[in-house]
Amino acid sequence: MRNPEVRSLPVAVRVFPAPAALDGDSRSGKFWRDPEGILFLHTVARPNGPQNLLLGVYRVIIAAQCVEEGLFYGDDLPKADIRVLKAYVARHLSETVAGGVKQLRLLTRREFLRLFYDLAYKARCLVIGSNLPLHLSRLAFDCAPARGFFAGGFSLGLWSYTDKRGRERPNGFRPRICVKYIDHERSLIAFTARNSPDEEDLIPEGSLSGEPKPGYKFPGHFLDLRTLAFALTDEGHSLEAVCESFGVRRGKKRASP
Q1: Which of 79, 177, 212, 218 has the fewest Cβ atoms surrounding its Cβ within 10 A?
Q2: How distant, in Å, are the alpha carbons of 13, 14, 30, 69, 246 from that of 232?
Q3: Does the predicted model carry a pTM greater than 0.85?
Q4: Cβ neighbours of residue 50 closer than 8 Å, sequence gap 6 or more
Q5: Consecutive 10-residue runs of the chain (257 residues): their mean pLDDT?
Q6: Rounded-to-integer distance, Cα 56 and Cα 72, Å
Q7: Bridge-based pairing state of the strands 154-157 and 177-181
Q8: For position 58, what pLDDT does the model report?
Q9: Which one-letter DSSP state was computed for residue 92?
Q10: For the chain, how far is it from start to end, CA to CA, in angstroms?
Q11: Residue 127: how many CA atoms within 13 Å on its side-chain side?
């Protein structure tokens, strides 16, 4: 007879097999190594405002310790708002470890994109955000249909230059970012190739030899916290809800009216 006090509980089990010993006979000659550096970013935009009327925050984490944090703002932010931001960073210190940057940084969108390029592409840090495609799209100056593997998605141009006629043009010497949604909770994100990559950019991830491979393109490391929360709970969450669910000490706060 079934005990009415016993209830079924769905249990999910993940198995992580130990990797085979790495030696000269390894077939692929590759292995996975977690990125030591992390770039966390989050943006907000004013409703019905211009694309670049935005604010953003970022944190740089190295070896699980915060070494830098700051704010950045869009090109069209009013001067009065910029003065408020400058006053804020002048009064507040960053929450970084000893040896980190103690003063909060305040960057323009273009300055932040230079930092983003250095960390996310050149240093191959892990980029983290909740609903990451949205935040990346707010940083972009143009958008186009993606091709190839990402066909059906979109391609974001984050970096640009001004030509002789004063027109903003895509910078082909910087990668674009392609995004393709699988469903409401999951998406694929990757860098595209760029013109004239440096030799170190052509070294495949996990390469044991460290030798450049012609034609290789670094896809980037991107983690959408919305996807991670869905994988762990099988439920969709807002950033505020997922902070509450996982007991984050200082999660997202509701904006004051």
Answers
A1: 79
A2: 11, 10, 28, 28, 10
A3: no
A4: 74, 76
A5: 66 64 47 82 75 84 95 92 95 92 94 97 96 94 94 96 91 96 91 96 90 94 91 79 76 53
A6: 5
A7: antiparallel
A8: 97
A9: -
A10: 58
A11: 26
